[in-house]
Design goal:
The protein is about 35% helix and about 20% strand. It is built from 24 helices and 30 strands. Helix 4 runs parallel beside helix 6, helix 5 runs antiparallel to helix 6 and helix 12 packs antiparallel against helix 13. The radius of gyration is 27 Å and the shape is globular.
């Protein structure tokens, strides 16, 4: 096997050395260079052009500040303050975004800025070699406290690594940025820096045992395995493929390869990049374990863990089946980073196995999630997309709020021309119905796609230059009914035997002025929220329909630089007071929508029976901005609705009353909330039970969080425990180092279930304070209870 892989590497190296292929073709062999696919007027071109304007508002020197600092170079600008524990992560995304737009549009300002960043990164790498020779040769990262983290990790000491905020995740973004600067623009300096950086990564973990590496990978690390797989394909050097395998997390790899879904309560965007790496390793090495793992992950997430617009996760985690109601109750809905990475995984799987199902998912997510996460006027990016009825999205502003989804947002809107067309041998696949022009240089033909899809149900391909014989593979989308798709070539109808979610092959010698007309009839369908059948979404073809419900109390609509500005923290409107559909026949309901005259993709439903009725218009979700909305609707039968609503009203009243009293809260065991509240811990571990997360400490260990008080007085601390715990559960709770209470929960609740305990906090502990640190301290030879939720409450 090793010999075969070595020969493959030699072949790859020879191919890449001697070939005149564009760098993008070299890595993604079914793709067209972005420069060869031109977007024409339409929503995607608008989004791309607006995004370039937004990108150029960012200050490159501020993005580079963490890199200069860690390299020991004098500052040129002050770094960004928000998410400072991840300083440097946006710089890599920004470099990728610049490279993408250089390739797609030849934008001179983007090219100049990209080349400036590369020269600065070269200076940082050179300085690291001089200033940090023990660990920093080849280092191009901006991780805060890099010297301590990487020098100690190299020796097998994980103390600083675990105390930091996801160091490998951070540097992965610059790995990807350097790769992309070469991949999309052919910049040789970027390629050299990338490979030197890869060599640094290999050296840092060279002395670690397999067990230590797997322990290291328990912390979010982005797509490091993918990066090394790419380096292997670039060079043919087997050391990079070995590194890719080394950086593959067995916790996910082995169950996925065996067809076992172990994703409940896993941090979603920690897992997706791992799966991308699995697929890439499988693609390049032909190792079925890796390919199976990537494919099964995709099947699991897209078929049972994704919502109508293609996204997944709530509060950044995959919920278990019984926790999917959180999609409705919470406002931290699917994260746009997840969809960015799921589209990359989809692209990679499609390259190896070009099935239409991959493009069906890709199209749905592109229109309904990715496009919806950019503000159409100021270009801000969205982190969470709430599913909660009558809630809203929050947008970033340039040079503030440097969230992870700002980084992927920078990249998202430059790649809309990426998979409209692909090629394989002598076939050309038409995957997406987006107005565009293709220059297929290898065949000497140019093709123009004229369409206003999805506002019209058709598209037209025109051969505008050249003559060549090839197979045109026309995608038959899953959302077109059996036999409803129509194709004409030069006015003559084409017969076919394919069905929905497939491709129709048209083989001929194509000549200038040949015309292919494709009719794509759309209809309405209903989709249930995963594991919550009472809630439905309405689709028209691939487009998610939603309704604006108001513009009241859009708190933080454009986020400031606050720590939690990415969360739409405005008032939650009661779920039981939202419009509720009463209908026994969902098919009839879908067919009963009335198109709005002269407003494509807009519908009303005047005949529908509804509780809490409102005059609403359904429209594409990606068009809804600066407003509250409904994309998921409760639907009840005529016999069940009153009883159900009475029960829901009581529950919702209690839930909203608790929210109104809450000053701040943290969910222990959940990665982002803990980071947001500056967790400190020792001898502490996390887990989940009954779809809720917990954290505990043992043997004199502790954990603590920084919670805001807003200078409130009359504060109470609510702590959520679970009953029927085993062992000695005696511990102390502190407020800013002052003991609040000594607690003994040993055998306190002898039956399972959750129990909320409220502790009065003396005014002396919180007077004139903006924040307090809440600490749970275990006793020697003992442990704390598992802590599930912590709230600071205003007294009733």
């Amino acid at each position: 096997m090793r010999i075969a892989q070595g020969l493959l590497g030699m072949m790859l190296c020879t191919l890449l050395t001697n070939s005149n292929l564009h760098a993008q073709d070299s890595l993604y062999n079914n793709a067209f260079p972005l420069s060869d696919v031109k977007l024409l007027e339409g929503p995607f071109k608008h989004a791309r052009d607006l995004n370039i304007q937004t990108l150029l508002k960012y200050d490159a020197d501020r993005l580079l500040a963490p890199y200069r600092k860690e390299a020991g170079l004098p500052a040129k600008a002050k770094g960004y303050s928000n998410w400072d524990g991840l300083s440097g992560h946006i710089g890599g995304h920004y470099l990728s975004a610049l490279a993408i737009n250089v390739a797609a549009t030849h934008n001179a300002a983007c090219r100049s800025r990209m080349e400036y960043m590369l020269s600065e990164l070269k200076s940082c790498m050179d300085a690291n070699a001089v200033n940090n020779p023990e660990w920093g040769i080849g280092y191009a990262g901006g991780v805060p406290n890099s010297k301590v983290i990487w020098s100690s990790l190299k020796k097998g000491d994980f103390t600083a690594y675990h105390a930091a905020w996801v160091p490998w995740y951070n540097v992965h973004k610059m790995y990807a940025g350097l790769r992309d600067a070469w991949l999309y623009t052919g910049n040789q300096q970027a390629k050299t820096l990338f490979l030197q950086f890869c060599d640094w990564g290999i050296n840092i973990v060279a002395a670690l045992t397999d067990s230590q590496v797997q322990s290291m990978l328990d912390t979010e690390h982005g797509g490091m395995n993918e990066i090394f797989a790419d380096a292997y394909q670039i060079t043919g050097d087997h050391k990079y493929l070995d590194a890719a395998r080394k950086f593959s997390h067995n916790m996910l790899l082995k169950p996925m390869a065996a067809g076992t879904d172990n994703l409940d309560n896993q941090h979603a965007n920690t897992q997706v990049p791992k799966a991308i790496g699995f697929e890439r390793i499988g693609e390049l090495s032909h190792d079925l374990q890796y390919f199976k793992a990537g494919r099964f992950f995709w099947e699991t997430v897209t078929t049972s863990r994704s919502v109508a617009f293609g996204g997944n996760s709530r509060r950044e985690f995959f919920p278990g089946a019984t926790a999917c109601m959180d999609f409705i109750n919470d406002v931290e809905g699917p994260e746009s980073c997840n969809s960015n990475n799921m589209l990359k995984l989809t692209e990679d799987l499609f390259r190896s196995d070009p099935q239409a199902k991959y493009m069906d998912y890709y199209e749905r997510t592109l229109y309904n999630h990715i496009l919806s996460t950019q503000h159409p006027v100021h270009g801000g990016y969205v982190y969470f997309t709430p599913l909660r009825p009558r809630h809203y999205k929050v947008y970033s502003a340039p040079n503030e709020a440097m969230w992870c989804c700002v980084g992927t947002g920078m990249e998202n809107h430059g790649q809309y021309n990426r998979l409209i067309y692909t090629h394989r041998n002598d076939s050309l696949s038409l995957n997406l119905f987006i107005a565009s022009e293709l220059n297929w240089k290898a065949k000497g033909v140019t093709i123009r796609q004229e369409t206003q899809f999805p506002y019209t149900e058709k598209t037209r391909l025109i051969v505008t230059g050249g003559t060549s014989r090839f197979v045109l593979m026309v995608r038959y989308p899953a959302w077109v009914e059996e036999g409803a798709l129509k194709i004409w070539v030069n006015g003559h109808p084409v017969s076919y035997t394919s069905g929905p979610s497939s491709y129709i092959a048209l083989q001929r010698t194509w000549k200038k002025n040949d015309v292919v007309d494709i009719q794509l009839p759309m209809h309405n369908t209903i989709e249930h929220l995963p594991n919550v059948p009472a809630y439905i979404a309405i689709m028209h073809g691939p487009v998610l329909l939603a309704a604006k419900t108001g513009t009241e109390q859009l708190t933080g609509l454009v986020a400031n630089d606050s720590r939690w500005g990415h969360i739409a923290a405005g008032k939650k409107l009661p779920v039981d007071k939202a419009p509720v559909i009463v209908e026994d026949n969902l098919l009839a309901m879908a067919n009963g929508l009335i198109p709005v005259k002269d407003k494509p993709l807009c519908f009303t439903f005047p005949a529908l029976k509804m509780i809490n009725p409102a005059k609403l218009v359904l429209e594409p979700f990606y068009q809804i901005h600066d407003a509250r909305y409904m994309m998921y609707w409760m639907v009840l039968s005529g016999t069940q609705y009153q009883t159900y609503l009475d029960s829901l009203a009581a529950t919702e009243k209690d839930r909203l009353a608790l929210q109104q009293r809450t000053v701040d809260f943290v969910a222990p065991g959940e990665q982002q909330p803990e980071a947001d509240h500056s967790i400190r811990s020792d001898q502490s571990r996390t887990g989940s039970s009954a779809d809720e997360f917990w954290r505990e400490a043992a043997n004199g260990g502790y954990f603590s969080y920084n919670l805001t008080t807003n200078k409130e007085t009359s504060i109470e601390l609510m702590v959520r425990y679970q009953g029927a715990e085993q062992g000695d559960r005696k511990f102390d709770i502190y407020v800013d180092g002052e003991k609040l209470v000594s607690e003994d929960n040993t055998a306190r609740w002898r039956h399972p279930g959750f129990f909320n305990v409220i502790y009065a906090v003396p005014d002396s502990m919180i007077k004139d304070k903006d924040h307090v640190r809440i600490k749970f301290q275990s006793l020697q030879q003992g442990r704390t209870s598992a802590i599930y939720y912590i709230r600071l409450l205003k007294k009733e």
